[in-house]
Design goal:
Blueprint lengths: L15 H21 L14 H14 L9 H9 L3 H9 L2 H12 L1 H10 L7
Length: 126
């Protein structure tokens, strides 16, 4: 028996444009790979492709710069200082809600000032 040789022929494509496009993309990829492996070649930084990653990085960058200007938020900062401390909250937690509301009004004089203003005892609300 002699040596046998088998021939294999790939199927022909009905659309030759696809083959030409694939060949063009393949040669571009090969050229890019050769450029990337040259000496002294540093890889370029790429932007993250995933939307969640890009969003997370943008939010982290905004948080670093999240500082209010000097004159903004004075009222909010003053209100934060005026909020009751831990010992005051302990007292209010032991009371019923209605009693706690009355005590808070007496402590801050919130409704008292508006009442005095309505009856004309003071010129205006502070």
């Amino acid at each position: 028996m002699g040596a046998r040789v088998r021939q294999f022929r790939p199927p022909s494509h009905a659309n030759n444009a696809t083959t030409e496009t694939d060949f063009a993309l393949g040669s571009e990829a090969k050229a890019a790979a050769q450029r990337a492996t040259m000496q002294r070649h540093t890889p370029g930084s790429r932007m993250p492709q995933a939307q969640s990653t890009a969003t997370r990085l943008a939010i982290a960058e905004q948080r670093q710069r999240r500082i209010l200007p000097e004159g903004v938020g004075k009222f909010s900062k003053a209100m934060g200082v005026a909020l009751p401390g831990k010992h005051t909250r302990d007292l209010y937690d032991k009371l019923k809600r209605r009693e706690a509301c009355v005590r808070a009004q007496l402590r801050t004089m919130a409704k008292f000032n508006s009442l005095l203003s309505r009856i004309g005892a003071v010129e205006s609300e502070p």
